[in-house]
From TrEMBL:
<dbReference type="InterPro" id="IPR015854">
    <property type="entry name" value="ABC_transpr_LolD-like"/>
</dbReference>
<dbReference type="InterPro" id="IPR017911">
    <property type="entry name" value="MacB-like_ATP-bd"/>
</dbReference>
<dbReference type="GO" id="GO:0005524">
    <property type="term" value="F:ATP binding"/>
</dbReference>
<comment type="similarity">
    <text>Belongs to the ABC transporter superfamily.</text>
</comment>
<feature type="domain" description="ABC transporter">
    <location>
        <begin position="8"/>
        <end position="243"/>
    </location>
</feature>
<keyword id="KW-0067">ATP-binding</keyword>
<protein>
    <submittedName>
        <fullName>ABC transporter ATP-binding protein</fullName>
    </submittedName>
</protein>
<dbReference type="InterPro" id="IPR003439">
    <property type="entry name" value="ABC_transporter-like_ATP-bd"/>
</dbReference>
<keyword id="KW-0813">Transport</keyword>
<dbReference type="InterPro" id="IPR027417">
    <property type="entry name" value="P-loop_NTPase"/>
</dbReference>
<dbReference type="Pfam" id="PF00005">
    <property type="entry name" value="ABC_tran"/>
</dbReference>
<dbReference type="InterPro" id="IPR003593">
    <property type="entry name" value="AAA+_ATPase"/>
</dbReference>
<keyword id="KW-0547">Nucleotide-binding</keyword>
<dbReference type="InterPro" id="IPR017871">
    <property type="entry name" value="ABC_transporter-like_CS"/>
</dbReference>
Length: 245
């Protein structure tokens, strides 16, 4: 974190694919600071570079140009080994399609990143139990992913992403495959996480999801075209979804 409380800092960030005539500038010069404990939503038309931006923030892709600091550490120039370590320990990813390991139980899916980070089986089990309980899944711990609903699977995926207490949770369309009730479950979790100081960046096509964020940035053709603070909206969750009387 820097002196202003920013977990992520991005300067002049660009990512190009291909060459010559087939060159695509997925992200074209983005400056962005993400404050600790806040939820930043990213919206924009399909193909505008949202997923690429998220990948660059979490070290899944390297930029063609520009700088990224995560927790005060420059990550765009870090070695492959350093980047792998960073992805394991400092970043949590949540995807639209869950990407759970189908052969492992809900608990084992959450334990896996803890074990991969070099911690003991005992602390992995304890961490998984705490997170699954927190997300209302204690009685589903031994279930395999196919035995769970989409909403339950996404909650397991969020638990997995949080297993190593990442500096930032990066979510790419986390509610894209979920119905309204399951979407609301995920948004309640996000609200609780922020209350506990977790920083989140959420790419979404759902305006209701974006409206619950602290801040909304809009992308177009690889650049940020709007940046709006939405302070206090997390408290309006039920109202946004028409569940309030
Ligand atoms: N590996 C790649 N090789 C070539 N082009 C790519 C690659 N990855 C992304 N692109 C291109 O970069 C641009 C941005 O893609 P990206 O997936 O980041 O957009 P997006 O806003 O997340 O889209 P969506 O909302 O449809 O998921 C698109 O034109 C895409 O085709």
């Amino acid at each position: 974190m820097n002196e202003f409380g920013d977990v992520l800092q991005v300067r002049g960030l660009s990512r190009e694919h291909g060459q010559g005539q087939s060159l695509v500038r997925a992200v074209g010069g983005v400056d962005l600071d993400v404050r600790a404990g806040q939820m930043l939503a990213v919206m924009g038309p399909s193909g505008c570079g949202k997923s690429t931006l998220l990948h660059l923030l979490g070290g899944l892709e390297r930029p063609t140009d520009g700088q990224v600091w995560l927790g005060g550490q420059r990550i765009d120039t870090v070695s492959e080994r350093g980047l792998a370590r960073l992805r394991r320990r400092s970043v949590g990813f949540v995807f639209q399609a869950f990407h759970l390991v189908e052969e492992l139980s809900a608990a084992e899916n959450v334990e896996l990143p803890v074990l991969l980070a070099g911690r003991s089986a005992r602390s992995a089990r304890r961490r998984a139990a705490v997170l699954l309980e927190r997300f209302g899944l204690a009685d589903r711990a031994r279930h395999l992913p196919w035995q769970l609903s989409g909403g339950q699977r996404q909650r397991v995926a969020i638990a997995r992403a949080l297993a190593n207490e990442p500096l930032v949770l990066l979510a790419d369309e986390p509610t894209g495959n979920l119905d309204t009730a399951a979407t609301l479950d995920v948004l309640r979790i996000f609200a609780d996480l922020r209350a506990a100081g977790q920083t989140l960046v959420v790419v979404t096509h759902d305006e209701r999801v974006a409206a619950t964020a602290d801040r909304l940035v809009t992308m177009r053709d690889g650049v940020l075209v709007d940046d709006t603070w939405l302070a206090g909206n997390a408290r309006r969750l039920d109202g946004l979804f028409g569940l309030e009387g």
